[in-house]
Amino acid sequence: MRKYYFALPALCLISLIAQGQQIKKTEVKRILSTLAADDMEGRATFQPGAEKAAVFLEKEFANVGLQPLKGDNDFRQSFSRYDTKPVRQDLIVNGQPVSSDRAFITGIEPSINWTQDTKLETATIGATDNFDVKVRELKRSETPTIVWVDSEHSEKFGQYVKALKQHGAEKQDSTATVAFVLRATADREIDNWSLEAKQQVTPFSLFNIAGMITGTGKPDEYVIFSGHYDHIGILKPVEQDSIANGADDDASGVTAVVLLAKYFKEHPPVRSILFVAFTGEEIGGFGSRYFSRQLDPEKIVAMFNIEMIGKESKFGKNSAFITGYERSNFGEILGKNLASSKFRFHPDPYPEQQLFYRSDNATLARLGVPAHTISTTQIDKDTLYHSVKDEISSMDFDNITSIIQAIATSATSIVNGKDTPSRIDKATVGGRL
Question: Does 399 lie in the same domain as 296?
């Protein structure tokens, strides 16, 4: 998860596994232990450990018998991120050359040559706007955009320009070019302007690991099970341990994805199911953002994002919570399917942590998909979170096994086309992601 155990009694288990084979604890331990092993080196994005984890997951998907996503030849959903660094900028406003410190550019075009006659979107960051929030929003523009920034933001603007000159813009995606220009106090009206700029662009390859089971009756409707396979890599040593293994965050969730794939392969669904291990969650949700652009969100019925299920929740045994519970009836459907068991899904008990916005469900939720994260983490007091102590020894394998089985059972009516969760109101989340 980004910065910004229950053992059911025998009678209870019967209700959870009535539809088929129980999730096996031995398999949970095998997969999770492999992903969180020291030789994965913390699975940091762009590092050899992440590649090793990806190869392992590809083999697991193949062994399950999944198919690549439509249009793909294998389980790697490849894309790129880009580092950019400004080389030259020439800015003219109202016929007068002005300092290059009054402009910065996001996007991956190596050069631009714009004038007031260039076909562009125009936006503003006003004196009372939150500069950081507006920059984050506008950087996602899908068309080339010129943004005029009020002089009230000159201090923040200067900090951005200084950082770009020193370090460049790290890990951008292929969104449209956006130029931010700081207006001078004297610029009441801007009659003409031009901006010519060049930047150095360096690509870096990434890949989600994704496979699918085609539905038997509604193949063009999709349910997603997901988790992220990246973590934060090598840290400053603590007691001679420098590897942030990421057992709970999120080897536990990815283990669930693999075993749910196996479960539903043995119980063919009516709707198609996509199983995805995302990359880059810890450094900006890059994998889920790319993934969301490859599908029609109107065809995605639900998303079960699974993150940090390795320990008992604050509600005790037989429980987990769902982020954004109140935003759709997704949780109600899951609860109905578990009514005869002791297992219960609860609303997120940590609203102040904004977990709904901090995992890979967020991008699709922004598009209206009932996309929620299932978790048990006691995030307010988890001392192992994002540390070298998030290791296999802290995992409760009985807990994880039972949660995965509960997810499989609770999802049945959705994957079999009997229930369709209500859509999330895009207007309530669009500005937050």
Answer: yes
> What span, in angstroms and rounded, lies between the C-alpha atoms of 340 and 409?
11
Q: Which helix (H) or strand (E) segment is 27 a member of?
A: helix 25-35
Give pLDDT tens digits for 359-408: 999 999 999 999 999 999 999 999 999 999 999 999 999 999 999 999 99
Q: Dihedral (C-alpha) 181, 185, 189, 194: value to the nearest 10 degrees?
A: -30
Is 274's pLDDT higher than 80? Answer: yes
Domain end point (choices 186, 204, 222): 204
Reading phi first (left if > 0) and then psi (alpha if -120 to 50, else beta), residue 233 is in left
Question: Pseudo-torsion of CA 218, 346, 263, 267, nearest 10°?
Answer: -40
Mark whether 41 and 120 lie in a shared domain. Answer: no
Nearest-5° Cα angle at 47, 42 to 50: 60
In 3D space, the residue among 216, 417, 217, 264 whose CA is nearest the CA of residue 333 turns out to be: 417
Structure confidence by residue, pLDDT tens digits, 201-251: 999 999 999 999 999 999 999 999 999 999 999 999 999 999 999 999 999
Query: Is the residue at 106 inside a domain?
Result: yes
Strands of 34-120 (E only): list them. 76-93, 96-98, 103-106, 111-115
Residue type, 109: E
Question: What is the identity of the amino acid at 420?
Answer: T
pLDDT digits (tens, 9 = 90+) for 371-380: 999 999 999 9
Q: How far apart are CA 227 and CA 360, in angstroms?
A: 7
Residues 396 and 294 in one domain: yes
